[in-house]
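[Automated response] Your request has been received and processed.

Submitted sequence:
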Amino acid sequence: MARPVVALVALLALSCATTPGSRPLSKALPLLLPTGADRARWERIEGDYDTTTEHVRYALFVDPALPLLYRITQFRVSRRVAGPGGNARFEDGPETVIWNETPGRRTPLRCFAEEPHRGWWTRFWASRTAWRDVPPTTVEFRNQMLRAIEIYFRVDAEGRSGPPVG
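Generated structure:
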């Protein structure tokens, strides 16, 4: 009886350790963005893909009032690193949220990066993900915009962009 239980536990541990990008995207977005109730009415395009060195998980939100525009882009890049025994595993990077706050105006998009937990106590008492504003004049901002463009190209190439047909 003990053998099957040990085998099952080992199998579960192995599957969890090798699942790429296993952490889901946050439901709690920066407070300045439209609420979850508002976003629930929006179209959500989600997916993920692998490169040779990374796993990317994303969600794009389309406001029905502006059907040809991604108002919110949310993504996380997990880097492939060598694990025990030469097996590759993924380390989650911080999540990024890009918000088109003022569509149709020539202003920079808003970019937010997930803040890491700073100590063991915040893991238990922090109920929301902490976000920091990424200034548009930084290299980090530029890199996140380039990643977002890569995601848009992939979604378009898969034929999943644009308003639903029906």
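Summary generated for your ticket: Residues 139-157 form the longest helix (19 residues). Helices lie at 2-18, 36-39, 120-125, 139-157.
If you did not submit this request, please reply to this message.
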